[in-house]
Amino acid sequence: MNIRKITGDKKEYIDLLLLADEQESMIDNYLERGEMFVLDDNGVKAECVITREADGIYELKNIAVMPDCHRKGYGKRMIEFLFSHYSDCKTMFVGTGDCHSILSFYNTCGFTESHRIKNFFIDNYDHPMFEDGKQLVDMVYLKRER
User: Fold this and answer.
1) Rounded CA gap, 75 and 39, in Å?
2) Which is nearest to 74 in space by CA: 63, 84, 83, 85?
3) Which pLDDT belongs to residue 34?
4) How do residues 44-89 score in pLDDT, each as one tens digit?
5) Residue 4 has what pLDDT?
6) CA-CA to 66 of 20 to 30 Å: which in 38, 75, 101, 127?
7) CB 49 within 8 A of CB 59
8) Separation between Cα atoms, residue 54 and residue 119, nearest integer Å
9) Residue 50, beta-bridge partner list
10) What pLDDT is recorded for position 98?
C-alpha cells in the first residue's frame, strides 16, 4: 500500500472525486488550491483533497474510496496519513451531509461535530443531493484536534 501526492493533472482522478462530491463545479472550487493524495494498493483505491485554511488548521474537502473497497480501512488510513503528513495540523475539519453512515465513519476516525451550515446543499448545488435515500440539506462540519 502506497500513498502519494498528485502534483500533475488532478482532473485525471475526477471520477473518484465525483463519488464523494457529485457536482464538478463544487470540486473545482477547491481542487487547485488543495493538495491531492491517492492510496494505491494494486490500483488506486482511495483519494482525498485537503486544504490549509490557517496556521495549524486544515480542511478535508473530499475523500473517496472505490465502492468495492468500502469497509476495508482505506478511508481511515488516508486520514491517519494526513495527520502524520501535516505535522503542524492542530485541527482538521471536514464537511459532509447529515447521513448516519458517513457521520459514523468520521466518528470512528476521531471526529466530533463542530457546527452546521443550514441549507448548504440546497443553496449551493444545482440539483437535490441524496445519500442513503435521504435528501441532504445542511452541511455538518466535524473536527478532530490533535
Assistant:
1) 9
2) 63
3) 97
4) 999 999 999 999 999 999 999 999 999 999 999 999 999 999 999 9
5) 97
6) 127
7) no
8) 25
9) 35, 60
10) 93
Residue 69 is classified by DSSP as G
Contact 62, 69 (CB under 8 A): no
Which amino acid appears at position 52 of this protein?
A: R
Please provide the DSSP assignment of 74-87 as one string: HHHHHHHHHHHH-T
pTM: 0.93
Cell triple for 94: 471536514
User: How many angstroms separate the CA atoms of 35 and 50, rounded?
Assistant: 5
What would the grid cell of residue 32 be?
Answer: 487547485
Distance CA 90, CA 117 (A): 22
How are beta strands 57-65 and 112-117 bridged, if at all?
unpaired
